[in-house]
Amino acid sequence: MEEKEDINALDEIHKGSCMGLDAINFILDKVNDKKFRKLLEDQYNTYKSINEEIEKIYPKYNEGNPHETTIMNKMMTSSGINMKTMNDKSNSKIAELLIQGTNMGIIEGRKILNNKKLNQEVSEIVDRYVGVQEKYLEILKKYL
């Protein structure tokens, strides 16, 4: 049973970090503040690193590739960001949108850590993902 929980955890965290990558990618061209842009680029690179780590160990647990966001989810994220920033591209508005997504990632990651029996290697990745989300949540709050 543990192996199935490991696969599920890896899939969920990979999908969550893909959603973060998509959101940041869609939002970066709206950010003019160099310091804020650098923060988002750092967050993007951190998500990318987590994805690469998952992709590296995934074959130990399952054939194929970890789950990613669908084209439909990407389109919905893009259009949602565009609509919500149409009249307000301020750092505050962008931080608000990113905080909402970050909170979802924290909740999902904490549920996984609290409710699944995971291999230590997988648990460490999930814990790292949650820690990164919590770190950026605190930083993003300063931009509200």
Annotated CATH architecture = Up-down Bundle
Please, what is the average pLDDT? 93
With helices defined by DSSP (H or I, 4 residues minimum), what is the helix count? 5
Helix/strand class: mainly alpha
- Biggest sheet architecture: none
Proportion of residues in extended strands: under 5%
CATH topology: Ferritin
CATH class: Mainly Alpha
Q: Can you tell me the residue ranges where pLDDT is under 50 for at least 5 consecutive residues?
A: none
The separation of the N and C termini measures 43 Å
**Sequence of secondary-structure elements:** HHHHH
| CA-atom Rg in angstroms | 15 Å
Full CATH superfamily name = Ferritin, core subunit, four-helix bundle
Q: What is the helix content?
A: over 70%
What is the global morphology? elongated
Describe the structure.
The chain has helices at 2-27, 34-61, 71-84, 91-115, 120-141. With 144 residues, it is mostly helical. It has one domain: Ferritin (Up-down Bundle), CATH 1.20.1260. Helix 1 (2-27) runs antiparallel to helix 2. The N and C termini lie far apart (43 Å).
